Amino acid sequence: MAMEPMIGLEVHVQLATESKMFCACSTKFGAEPNSNVCPSCLGLPGSLPVPNRKAVEYVIRTGAALNCSVADHCRFARKNYFYPDLTKNFQISQYDEPLTYNGYIDLKVNGEPVRIRIRRAHLEEDTGKNLHLASGSTLVEYNRGGIPLMEIVTEPDFTTAEQCREYLTQLRLILRCIGVSTANMDEGAMRAEPTVNLNDRATGEATPKVEIKNLNSIRSVYEAVKYEISRQRKAVAEGREGELFQQTRRWDESNGVTALMRRKETSDDYMYFPEPDLVPLEPDPAWVESIVSSCPELPAARCERFCTEYAIPEYDATVLTESRELADYFEDACKAFEGAAKTVSNWVMGDLTSLLHEAGVSIAQSPVSCERLAELLKLIDENVISGKIAKDVLAKMFESGKSAAEIVKEEGLEQISDTSALESVIDEVIAENPGPVEDVRGGKQQAIGFLVGQVMRKTQGQANPGMVNEMLSRKVKGEG
Amino acid sequence: MPDVARDVVEHVSTLARLALSSEEIDRLQHEMGRILEHADKLQAVNTDAIQGTSHVIPMINVYREDQVGESLTPEEVVANAPDSADEFFKVPRTVEE
After folding, report:
1. How many domains does chain A have?
2. Which of A317, A401, B17, B76 is most buried (most C-beta within 10 Å)?
3. What would the CATH number be for the domain defined by B6-44?
4. Is A42 in contact with B72 (Cβ distance < 8 A)?
5. How far apart are CA A51 and CA B61, in angstroms?
């Protein structure tokens, strides 16, 4: 039996609105327990929900980015179940009429193109948080209850854990790029639940579906899916497929295994019905059009464009397009610099990124603007300062907010490109190092590096290394 | 409309978290059958050309802008709770089903 994994992914995303989905409570993470709660999200009698326009806009924007159709008419529905994370014993969600549907995302996995179909991206409200105490009772708080939550469901098109990982990586980049969510998995702003089984596409034979929960990083989704595929494969290979059953399993991070959480004997029955407290949504076509047309260039497309338009390596393009702000910075710096884009990418990914990292600020708050960075790079190109000195200058620009030119002038860091000034230093170095000089004369070209280093040291790095190299070579060989 | 099947009543009572005695299930099989019979009259109406109605007032697209307003204090939030601990609601242990 040729069984192939068949995996679907359900992803929940907290939308980055200021206020909740159906009331004006704040969505701020980490607030005091039950401090962002009001009669509406507490489900008190007499309160009524009113949808947050921004949340609707964010789902439409996401739908557009995932090539989905936007419904011209849709409704909210009540999903009924009893669990203390709900204040009302139902969650307002969408059922038969999602806001966006029938999309797809194109991925590249190990160089191979893969298209994953998106079944729907709909809108619902998040639930509260339960805290189970060792003493036997449960504490509940509802700050999270009612935060706008988008559910993105794929068709079961994945066949490998690598594809799942790439999907989540791209999805996270997209969500951040279009500004609808922080998509931080460790804060629970993005949660993924894979459903895994093995399927023989020829005979239709399949193992029971297993849903995996408790995954709080892309890496854990990858590991869990990989583990679950091998667990089911092993059972089939050993003729134990009868032992597999439909269930929900929990990812046990420390042991690297999935473990039974609960059996699923019947399909869930949530008694969905239309939410009578909310009127239907019929997004105005002009509004939808303005949301769709203002959708920014997505990371994958931008990465590809960076490779061709700027002729930088794919690795650079990938790193630079990991955040929209970083990519914008790079492009603006290239425009201002007008020199080699690879130089810009080296400085942005290298020195600038480490300075930002040390200071704990984002690229958007960089004390060195892209124009300022371009000025610095021009000084190198024009041989005013060496690349080595430029590193120190950048650090000083970062700290003081001054321009590169100001710092170079104040500290007298101009590169020595004046032949007569270099000449005397080079003569000194030749006189002081007869050994290496002989080596060079004897044909040991590497020894020239040592002599160049000595000149750089004597000039505190300010000598133009190209010129030093050239002049030294000539002098040592007695040509000049 | 015949009585509702016993396993259907049991399923619905499980979903509604109602503990029913055997006699109550007997009675409900009959009573729910009568209720469905009554609702079944609607089946006689031809609704092919009518869109499903979840709301009787002809109104669409009611939104609020994304602005933060007042919340209750944590003390107010738990004021009516049968049991609370600090700012939390305290409920009997609920194990993930």
Report:
1. 3
2. A317
3. 1.10.20
4. yes
5. 9
